[in-house]
Amino acid sequence: MSRSSRSALIDAWVRPEVRALSAYHVPPPADVIKLDAMENPWPWPGELVEAWQAALSEVPLNRYPDAGAGELKARLRAAMGIPEGAALMLGNGSDELILLINLLVAGPGRVVLTPGPGFAMYRIIAVNSGLGYREVPLAEDFELDETAMRAALREVQPAVVYIAYPNNPTGNAFNRDALARVIHEAPGLVVVDEAYYAFANDSFLPDVLAYPNLLVMRTVSKVGLAGLRLGLVAGHPDWLEELEKLRLPYNISALTQASANFALDHREQLERSVAAIVAERGRLAEGLAAIPGVERVWPSEANFLTFRGPAGAAGRVHSGLREHGVLIKNLDGSHPQLADCLRVTVGRPEENARFLAALGQVLSG
Question: Which spans are transmembrane here (predicted)?
């Protein structure tokens, strides 16, 4: 088949909104200090790695995994304090759960609503699932614009509202009372995405049954298990019963279930690293604010910091840091409110020190 014939077939059958998308870009691994992806920087110590490998050796790979992940779900319920009476479903990362929630409510003319700048996958998965997408700009200092959000609820009648709490990529947690009013007024589902719950001071999970339209989503990626691709959503059993109809069988592999169960046996290791990240976050924020050329560092309740550099310099700063062996995220150009902004994941003390030294050299250069 000629290239022109293949292109004609693609043009004829691929949805125009998908053709207009760009694939989500993940930089390839490189020999750098990696502070771009909000990962936990502390690996397990050697003795735990050996014990984990031994546990995996007992997994019968010739058999399908537990389709309902019953043991893991029970242990996650206890570890995260999921309210009695709430149901739980696991996904291959939060992305799969977002897709399933969208497919649950998708239909002609239906819309996803979210404040922005926010998590990029909300828009991408909305388009992938055939839903419209509407973004409500955040107010000054990346606060939730409650008036604008409530007006948008009335105008577009969204099928689902996604709100990251704390927000990505800005790191702040929105005003709880304002968010509660948005949940109350939303005509459809509201998903509070608590990917950074471990680093924050508040959660809607204890109240997930207090609203008829609320789901709370979490992931174990940020606490140190990003390689597992394990997310969860909690809500009233009536909602989760419908979601389960869309979940593909065996979506959580046997190795993921075994690894997550092992990690829950050693929660203290994860908790120590989370506490270390929170402590380092404060020191990193102070160090950033002291560097000439850093115009603003926003408070964060996540495991990263968003900061603004000199006007028009974000690309130069990003590439300059890469030349110094440090990789962070360039947010400039991703959203109008993120002009000149960059985001750095909180690393280990020596990684943060190297980042700060490199940034000082780049900005003074």
Answer: none
Cα 362 from chain centroid (whole Å): 29
Taking the domain 62-265, which CATH number applies?
A: 3.40.640.10
> b/e for 286-320, b at 16 or more Cβ within 10 A?
ebbeebeebeebbebbbbbbbbbbeeebbeebbeb
In the structure encoding, which two tokens stand for residue 192, read together?
A: 């509070």
Class of domain 13-44+268-364: alpha beta
C-alpha span between 252 and 92 (Å, rounded): 6
Helix ranges (DSSP H) in the chain: 3-13, 16-19, 46-56, 70-80, 93-105, 120-128, 146-156, 176-185, 237-244, 254-265, 267-289, 314-323, 349-364
pLDDT in tens, 243-290: 999 999 999 999 999 999 999 999 999 999 999 999 999 999 999 999
Domain with CATH 3.40.640.10 in the chain: 62-265
What are the contacts of 247-253 at 24+ separation with CB within 8 A?
Answer: 247/89, 247/91, 247/100, 249/67, 250/64, 250/65, 250/67, 251/90, 251/91, 251/92, 251/96, 252/65, 252/69, 252/72, 252/90, 252/91, 252/92, 253/65
Residue pair 280/288 in contact by the 8 Å Cβ criterion: no
Specify whether the CB–CB gap between 207 and 184 falls below 8 A: no
Element (H, E) at 58: none
Full-model pTM:
0.94
Point out the residues of the chain with pLDDT beneath 50.
none
Going by the DSSP 8-state scheme, the letter that residue 165 receives in this structure is S
